[in-house]
């Protein structure tokens, strides 16, 4: 069994989505919503829906969220701009579709 870490955000009085009044940022396989200076993403469970905080960049010198990080030398595997390390691939890890990807930070790599 795999456990997924998540950090629930404060309670919401509305559902984030198009037209909710919060800016949306695509981050890997989900959408984060900018809410009062931080980012939330929807998390559906068998007990209902709540919102989690977006992942924080794991670079030693960064305090931003992965959806907004713009570190010039970022090595965080969950940041939007992490680049695929496969030969000949120019995509970000979030968008890489290499059939036999060997990059350790791509979301589909085995």
UniProtKB/TrEMBL annotation:
Species annotation: Lentzea albidocapillata
Protein name (record): Metallothionein
Superkingdom of the organism of origin: Bacteria
């Amino acid at each position: 069994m795999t456990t997924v870490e998540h950090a629930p955000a404060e309670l919401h009085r509305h559902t984030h989505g198009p037209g909710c009044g919060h800016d949306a940022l695509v981050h890997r396989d989900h959408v984060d919503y900018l809410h009062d200076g931080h980012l939330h993403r929807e998390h559906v469970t068998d007990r209902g829906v709540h919102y989690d905080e977006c992942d924080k960049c794991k670079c030693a010198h960064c305090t931003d969220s992965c959806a907004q990080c713009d570190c010039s030398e970022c090595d965080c595997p969950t940041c939007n701009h992490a680049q695929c390390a496969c030969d000949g691939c120019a995509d970000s890890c979030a968008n890489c579709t290499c059939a036999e990807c060997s990059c350790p930070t791509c979301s589909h790599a085995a």
